[in-house]
Structure formats: structure tokens, C-alpha cells
Automatic annotation (TrEMBL):
It comes from the Eukaryota. This is FANCJ protein. Pfam families: DEAD_2. One of its GO terms (molecular function) is DNA helicase activity. GO terms for biological process: double-strand break repair involved in meiotic recombination; nucleotide-excision repair. One of its GO terms (cellular component) is nucleus. Keywords: ATP-binding, Hydrolase, Nucleotide-binding.
Length: 232
């Protein structure tokens, strides 16, 4: 039978309700779940969005979550070694400067080419439009997630709790699809792993030595120093 939950088959415009809910006859609220489609790489997202364009669902509201490495268009930040840190510094105005691209996000997220969505798009389409409008594709993609029916992203955006929190992703009562799920184990292991160098451990030990010597919260710092020493 025809699809009754989304707007694709009826030709109606997508639901503009930011909470993404619909009313039932008895007055209760019926939540329409989003589809979170996780892939191993950003390149695979491009392939999937290309296939989506060929289906009857190409008009469904969508977005693609990706890192600043793929979506930052700021001329200085995009060419730096640490895009995340520089972006945060600009947004906080630490050095008296701000990001004009960030303040133009609404021009991109509300652009007729994306809202309402006439067809599926990929990261390159969003970045190209962002350069044209001088608006940030990274934050525009996050803003589009509010009204999206389907959200594409790499595995770690769904599996890593820190990334989920930073991207405001809530998977409760949502549909999650994991492409090539045999890769999940490695991704999950990376999400709870952390790598440090020996020089970082030695620097941490020196700072902890200083804390303990000066009697600063010794009962907390002595066990940490012991861990650093044992690892070194």
C-alpha cells in the first residue's frame, strides 16, 4: 500500500514541525522516527546518496553529518593542522575574531536547493553551495538534522558516546541501519581506546610530581602518578 508516514508518495511538503511529530486522532503525539544510516567511510556515504537519488525517496528530507575535515570552508581553518580546535577558538572569539561563515549558516540550511529537498545530495553538493553562499556546511548539516527523515553519517557518530553528545544525536526510538556491520567491532574498540606517547606520559608525570611535592590534592594525584610511572 502507499506510504502514510512520510510525504514522498502524496506529494505534500515535508513536515515542518521541529519536534518531527504528528498528531493522532485522540490528541496524543505520535513520534515519527528518523533513520540513522551509518557507513564505514565518508566515500561510502557519497555512493549511497547517489543511489538514493535514483529511488522514489529522493525527495525525502535528509542530511549528512561529517567532520570539519570534509566540510570546513574557512580559508584559514580549513588549511590548518587542527581544524576542530581553531574552529572552536573562532566561535568563542578568543582572539577577538569570529567566523562569518558560521553566522551565515541559515542562508545554507534554508536555501531552496536543500529545504524542502528536491533531490538527494552529497557532501560535495553541500560544500559547493556553502562556498557560493559563504555559509558553513558543517553546522548547516547539523541544523538540517532537526527536520531530516534520514541522516547519513560514519559509524563512530553513532557508536562513540562523546561524538553522539557533541553532535546532539539521540538514538532513542529511532531506526539505525549499519552498512557492512562486520566492521562494527573495530569501530567500537576504537571508540573506547586512547593513544598516548611516552613523552606525553613523562610530561604528565612531571606535572603530577609537582602537585604531590607541593601538597596539592595529594590523595588524588599520587595514584595518577603511580599509573604514569608504571606505564613508562
Amino acid at each position: 500500500g502507499p506510504c502514510t508516514e512520510c510525504s514522498c508518495s502524496s506529494g505534500k511538503e515535508p513536515d515542518k514541525d521541529p519536534s518531527h511529530t504528528k498528531k493522532k486522532e485522540n490528541g496524543d503525539r505520535l513520534c515519527v522516527p528518523k533513520i540513522f544510516f551509518g557507513t564505514r567511510t565518508h566515500k561510502q556515504i557519497t555512493q549511497i546518496s547517489r543511489e538514493l537519488k535514483r529511488t522514489a525517496y529522493s525527495c525525502v528530507p535528509m542530511t549528512i553529518l561529517s567532520s570539519r575535515d570534509y566540510t570546513c570552508i574557512h580559508p584559514v581553518v580549513s588549511n590548518s593542522g587542527n581544524r576542530n580546535e581553531m574552529c572552536v577558538e573562532l566561535l568563542e572569539g578568543k582572539h577577538g575574531k569570529s567566523c562569518s561563515y558560521y553566522h551565515g549558516v541559515h542562508k545554507l540550511s534554508e536555501h531552496h536547493a536543500l529545504q524542502p529537498v528536491p533531490r538527494a545530495w552529497d557532501i560535495e553538493d553541500l560544500v559547493s553551495l556553502g562556498r557560493k553562499l559563504r555559509a558553513c556546511p558543517y553546522f548547516a548539516a547539523r541544523e538540517l538534522m532537526v527536520g531530516a527523515d534520514i541522516v547519513f553519517c560514519p559509524y563512530n557518530y553513532l557508536l562513540d558516546p562523546q561524538i553522539r553528545d557533541s553532535m546532539d544525536i539521540n538514538l532513542k526510538d529511532q531506526v539505525v541501519i549499519l552498512d557492512e556491520a562486520h566492521n562494527i567491532e573495530d569501530c567500537a574498540r576504537e571508540a573506547v581506546s586512547y593513544g598516548v606517547t611516552e613523552s606525553q606520559l613523562r610530561a604528565a608525570r612531571e606535572e603530577l610530581d609537582l602537585m604531590v611535592t607541593n601538597g596539592i590534592r595529594q590523595k588524588h594525584h599520587e595514584p595518577l602518578r603511580a599509573v604514569c610511572c608504571s606505564l613508562i
